[in-house]
Amino acid sequence: MQVVHSIADLRTRIKEYRRKHDQSVGFVPTMGYLHEGHVSLLRKARTQSGLVVLSIFVNPLQFGPGEDFERYPRNTEKDLQLAEAAGADLVFMPTVDEMYPTPIRTTVSVTGLTSRLCGASRPGHFDGVATVVSKLFHIVQPDQAFFGLKDAQQIAVIEQMVQDLNLDIEIVPCPTLREADGLAMSSRNVYLSEQERKQALVLSQSLEKVKEFIQSHPSFSSEELVQLVSSHISTAPLATIDYVEALGYPTLEPFEIGHHPASIIVALAVKFGKTRLIDNLIIQVRK
Ligand code: AMP
């Protein structure tokens, strides 16, 4: 496994690989502090791509004022061990100056899909995501890029960007990996106190409740689903709900009772102290 810090170096190595091999280049963009969720993306890439490129970059552009950019967890040594064990070939770890040497004057903005969920509660977040992912796509020029469904809105946004900008990249969505007790793996889980960690279980539990509810109710409203999730989360005294929404997926459009689309997402963001966690359930619904 090779580790590179400069864009020029990365480009040279990928070009060299392409010259020598007639195989695809797979790309896994991350912000580091890797866990099994990230590892699952790398493993998936390993099965589908000839060259597996991982990027580790905490992107300041996607953090709002007062968010956790400065204190975002970092552990390069452990990241590199996990990356190597999962089969990464090339790790790109640029500095902020390497990615943004001058103040950025060109950004990528995906409209519509970003007006709800995390787009509404973190203004500018998805412009930051779409811009950095588009820069990374231009640098790496992958054939496939692997993203986790834990960030389902991010996948919808990236797929739209790829379609709108005619990027020749296959977006591969990968399932959410969870801890044994159900909590979705996240680099931010490390912020949780012991009490918060225990209470954070209400998130995955509430989504399980929705799943059971949908399976036993042929007709339901989005309000019923939201109510079910919110009332269960409210049983945790340390939880503050940022949002709970039930929408069509990947359109992220609201739906009326009896007219739900074939695929729906129930998505939530909840704060425990300063730590904001997200989770979701995407479910295919019988008509
Ligand atoms: P991050 O480092 O949090 O920006 O995440 C990098 C990639 O890993 C994104 O595509 C995430 O959706 C994905 N990811 C994060 N957590 C998980 C998880 N628990 N299971 C699967 N993928 C994940």
TrEMBL record:
Reaction(s) this enzyme catalyzes, per UniProt: (R)-pantoate + beta-alanine + ATP = (R)-pantothenate + AMP + diphosphate + H(+)
Location relative to the cell: Cytoplasm
A GO CC term attached to the entry: cytosol
Active site residues according to the UniProt entry: H38 (proton donor)
Pathway info: Cofactor biosynthesis; (R)-pantothenate biosynthesis; (R)-pantothenate from (R)-pantoate and beta-alanine: step 1/1
SUPFAM superfamilies xref list: Nucleotidylyl transferase
Gene3D superfamilies: HUPs, Pantoate-beta-alanine ligase, C-terminal domain
Keywords: ATP-binding, Cytoplasm, Ligase, Nucleotide-binding, Pantothenate biosynthesis
EC number, as in UniProt: 6.3.2.1
Positions with a binding annotation for ATP: 31-38, 148-151, 177, 185-188
Family matches, as InterPro entries: Pantoate_ligase (IPR003721), Pantoate_ligase_C (IPR042176), Rossmann-like_a/b/a_fold (IPR014729)
GO molecular function, one term: ATP binding
Binding site for (R)-pantoate: Q62, Q154
GO process annotations (BP): pantothenate biosynthetic process
Xref: Pfam families: Pantoate_ligase
Keyword Cytoplasm belongs to the record: yes
Transmembrane segments: none
Binding site for beta-alanine: Q62
Family stated for the protein in its record: Belongs to the pantothenate synthetase family.
Subunit composition and interactions: Homodimer.
Free-text function comment from the UniProt entry: Catalyzes the condensation of pantoate with beta-alanine in an ATP-dependent reaction via a pantoyl-adenylate intermediate.
Xref: HAMAP family: PanC
Additional notes on this entry: The reaction proceeds by a bi uni uni bi ping pong mechanism.
Protein name: Pantothenate synthetase
Organism listed in the record: Paenibacillus ferrarius
Gene that encodes the chain: panC
